[in-house]
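EI: anyone free to look at a 374-residue chain?
SC: sure, send it
EI:
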Amino acid sequence: MDQQTIKRYLDFLSDELNGAALYNALAEAERDEHLATVYRRMAAVEQRHAEVWINKLTQAGVAIPPFKPSLRTRVFSMLARRFGVALVLPTITELEQKDSGKYGREAGAGDLSVDESSHARVLTAITQPVRGKISGSAIAQLEGRHRAGGGNALRAAVLGANDGLVSNLSLVMGVAGAADLNEQAILIAGLAGLLAGAISMALGEWLSVQSSRELYQRQIAIERAEIANAPDEEVEELTLIYQARGIDEARARQMAQQIIREPASAVEALAREELGVDPEELGGSAWEAAITSFLLFAVGAIFPVSAFFFLQGMTAVLVSILVSAVGLFIIGSAITLFTGRSVWFSGSRQVLFGLAAAAITFTIGRLVGVNLGG
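SC: here you go
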């Protein structure tokens, strides 16, 4: 076995062990025992896959290194335990879909490839049950679970902080170039940029979420009226939805009729099945989304301003750039949770792009300042 093959097998082993650890963590954090059982079974499959690579490596005389969960596994496990599985599941689903073909060209790994593809389909059915065609038993397990937006929430958090940091760094450097390192002007501009950007982000998020809530409320009111005025039509709608999921017509109609008999339950069921929304949450709190957006943008935007509270002149500019570079690297490292790329690659790329934007605005500011100054 050559070194390239050994490295590939060790990478496969690490992936499978991390998968087993992550699914076990999801099982521990999952409140629905049916779904927890699904995650435990998936963890067992990943562990069985790991044994395949352990056997191959052992037969080749390769020492098996001790397993240490990856940063991604540790972060997702912590988030699932702290905030619930729904927060991380969409992102895990995307990653599983991307990895589902990794054994496609690997000799003797056909069964493993089938299992990986199956995992991707199962996770997709859990996160997006309306679109998936799943069995009647799966419907029973997933009853009442609305589509989760956790993956988008995590990505939005990272990107919100990134927007604040890059935009305010560019603003601060532009003013530094134009104002000939006037600390007071730079600080005022930086704080103004922080507040203006954070307020704008918060207002935009509030309007977006509140508009969605009002739309859902109107649609739910329409569903409530239709249940009262045309219950047979609503039975047909639910029947078709359940049939699209793979349930036979007789069973689908029986389920639909049972739901429609109770108006309150029917409204809730139709909201989940047709609108894909939890009627109790209606897409979340607009104020919570606004405050979160404000804070995330502000956290990123404070990095380039902080140095000007304590330092002056070029020293303040250099420290601002250094602090911002650290922040950019942290954000780039967080992006690896979604991309799977190297921490050093993603972090360095983020630093390069952010500092390039700052250099451009500093140069433009200097040119403008010189021209306006005479």
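EI: Confidence is low (pLDDT under 50) at residues 129-151.
SC: 👍
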